[in-house]
Amino acid sequence: MKSIYRVLAIVLFITATHSCKTIPVVDSSLPFKEQLTQLFPTASIDAIKTGDHFTEAYQVVMNQPLDPKNPSKGTFKHYMYVSHSSYEQPTVLITDGYASNNRTSELSKVLKGNQIIVEYRMYGKSRPNPLPWEYLTNDNAIEDYHNIVTKMKAIYKGKWLSSGISKGGETTLIYRSKYPKDVDVAVPYVAPIIDGVEDQRTNDLINSVGTDACRLAIKKYQRAILHNREAVLTIMKQHAAAKNMKFTKVPYEEALEYAVLEFPFSFWQWGGKCEAIPAEDASPQELFDYVNTIVGVSFYSDAIFEYYLPSFYQHVKELGYYGFDLEPVKDLLKVVKSATNKRFAPSNVDLTYNPNYIKKVRNYIENKGDKILYIYGAYDPWGACAPSPKPHVDALMMVLDGADHSTRIKHFSKEDQEKIYTKLQEWLGEETTVYPLNK
Questions:
Q1: CA distances from 100 to 82, 91, 122, 400 (A)
Q2: Tens digit of pLDDT for each residue in 282-320?
C-alpha cells in the first residue's frame, strides 16, 4: 500500500505547476543533501559551517545557463548557499545584488526559517572570465531565481519570502514584479527604484537632511581637501603604497576628486557624524583620513574598480544611478567635469540606457505590489528613490527617522517592530510563528 500511495503522490506532484513551470519531484524520505542532489544533479554540493538555528548548510555550485532561454549558449558556475532548518518552516530567498557570502539574514532569524542565498549572476565567484556582458541582464538574473525557487519548492512546500539589501533589495522588487506568485512576501531593505542614470532625488535629499550648519560644514570640508590637493595627494599615495593599491585605471588626482564629490552621498548613506567633520584648517593628514573613513579611497583602486564593473554596467544600462553635485567645488576641479558615474562602467560595450525597464517595475510595485515590507532610513540618499505604493496596495513602508543605509528591523522601536511582526503574521498566516528580535 505504501508504494501505491507514493506513486499517487508523485503523480499529483508532477502535475503541480508554478508560474508555467513544472515543480520537480524529489524523494522526501532521503536525507536533505541527497534531495538537493536530486534537484541539482550536475552541481557541486559541499557541506559548510552552520550557525544560529540551522541544522545543515551547503554550498551549491550550479552550471547555470548564460542565456536562460537558450541553454545552447553555454553555462557559467553559479554559487548559492542553502541553510536548512525544518521542512515545515518558511523559506527565505536572499537575492544578493553583488557577490555573496554565507550568513544568517535578519529575516531568517525572525522566522527561524530555511534560507537560500543566491549570488547575483556574474558577480563574485560566479563571474566568468572574460565576462560576457550581453548575458548580464536583470531579466536573466530573475530567471535564475525563478528556476531555483521552482526547484526548491519540491523540498520546501511552506511559505516563501524573498529579501535583499540595497541593490539586492531592488532585485527583490524586480523579481516580485516579474514573478509575483513565486513567493508569499517580499522584504526589501533600503531598496531604490531609480529614475535615470543621474536621479536628482538623491541630491535633493542630501541638500535637505540634517542641519544647515552640517551641510555647510560638508561643503567647506570638500573645498578644504581640494585647496590642499598636493599635500593630500602625497598622503594618499603613501597610503596606497602601504596597502599595495594601484591607481592606473582611475589615476590618483582623478580618484581624489571623485572621492570629494562622493563624500556627501557616503556621509549621509553611512551615518556620518557632523561633529566629526574636520575644520577648514585641519591638517592634510586629518583631511585625508576622514575622506578615507567615509568614502574609502580604495574604491577607486584598480582591484575595486574591476570588482564593481558589473554593477556599474547594470546601473548604466537598466537600473539607473545617482549623479554628483559639482557646484560646491566646481571651481576647484581639474580632472572631473561630468556629474555622472558612467566613468566606472566598462568600456567598449554598449551602454545605452533603457529607461522603460525600471519604469515597468515601478509601475507594478506601486500599483500591484501587495505583501511587500519596505525598510528604509530617512537620511539614506537611496531612500529618496524608494517607490511610493498607492493607498490601495497592501504594503507596509517603514522609515526610521535619522537613520542610514544600514537600517534593519532590529533598529526600530519596540512599538514599530511590533507593527512589522503583526503585518508579517497577517501575510504569512497563523500557522507561521514570528520570533521577535531582541533590541
A1: 12, 18, 11, 26
A2: 999 999 999 999 999 999 999 999 999 999 999 999 999
DSSP string of 201-221, one letter each residue: HHHHHHTTSS-HHHHHHHHHH
Q: Delimit the domains of the chain by residue range.
A: 2-189+408-428, 208-344
pTM (predicted TM-score): 0.93
Give the contacts of 35 (CB within 8 A, at least 6 positions apart).
Answer: 26, 27, 28, 154, 155
Write the CB contacts of 291 (distance below 8 Å, at least 6 apart in sequence): 225, 259, 260, 263, 297
| String of DSSP letters for 314-365 | HIIIII-------GGGGGG-SS-----SGGGSPSSS-----HHHHHHHHHHH
Quick one: CA torsion of 152, 155, 157, 161, rounded to 10 degrees?
-40
The whole-number pLDDT of residue 439 equals 57
Q: How far is CA 376 from CA 148, 162, 188, 295, in A?
A: 28, 17, 9, 21
At 20 the pLDDT is 52
Cα separation, 439 vs 436, in Å, equals 9
**Average confidence score pLDDT of the chain:** 95
In 260-332 the beta strands, taken as DSSP E runs, fall at: none
- pLDDT digits 0-9 by tens, 77-131: 999 999 999 999 999 999 999 999 999 999 999 999 999 999 999 999 999 999 9
One-letter amino acid at 222 equals Q
Encode burial over 35-68: b for 16+ CB neighbours within 10 A, e otherwise: bbbbbbeebebeeeebeebbebbbbbbbebbbbb
Residue 269 grid cell:
548613506
Sign of the Cα pseudo-torsion (255, 257, 262, 264, in order): positive
CATH 3.90.1010 applies to domain 2-189+408-428: no
- Name the stretches of the chain with pLDDT < 50: 1-19
8-state DSSP, 411: G
Instruction: Count how many Cα atoms sit within 13 Å of the Cα of residue 403 in the half-sphere of its side chain.
Output: 19
